[in-house]
Amino acid sequence: MKYCLLYTLIFISACTSNNSLVPSDIRIISQYHTLDEKVSPKYVNCAREIQTFRTREMYDCSFTIEGLEFDILQHFLFDYKGNLKEFWDYKAEGPLVYTMEALKKDLPLFKQVRADRKGYQLSEDGLLLVNLTDTLPIEKIFRKQQIILIQQFGELKKRDQRILFEYELLSKHLD
Q1: Would you list the DSSP string of 32-78?
Q2: pTM recorded for the entire structure
Q3: What is the rounded distance in angstroms from the CA atom of residue 150 to the CA atom of residue 118?
Q4: How big is the CA angle at 53 (ends 58 and 148), to the nearest 5 degrees?
Q5: In this predicted model, what pLDDT tens digit does every residue of 53-107 receive, in sequence order?
């Protein structure tokens, strides 16, 4: 009986733990604000056929991950220190790309996109992405695509939107 209870507790712990899903040696390289996977299939935002995350082209405005479709609203690219490098604002005619220099010249946009934000880090328990102002709970990790899907809550849920982070493994740069 003790062994049965012990195995049950180990099984429950393994199933509910998100720690084992998130690699600890990651660096966030970009952030996507998208329409959620329920709303995106109802809209046609791109002229091209929708590609998977890894096979899409640079200016594509939609992608799929494991059969889920996401239409990109905004894309933030970070440098190796986690600072914002570029901001892409997706419009009907394609993305408008702003470098950090361009954002600094447009103070209202600079403030709106929070261009001075610092990079995100994985929490010690592997359940959150955090920076100085945000704490974002992780819903799912797509390891093959190196994507972190953030839980949908608050304004994101009301607006049918999602936040996804793309990461790279730091260990691959240690060669």
Answers
A1: EEEE-TTTGGG----SSPPEETTT--TT-SEEEETTEEEEEEEEEEE
A2: 0.82
A3: 18
A4: 115
A5: 999 988 899 999 999 999 999 999 999 888 999 999 998 888 999 999 999 999 9
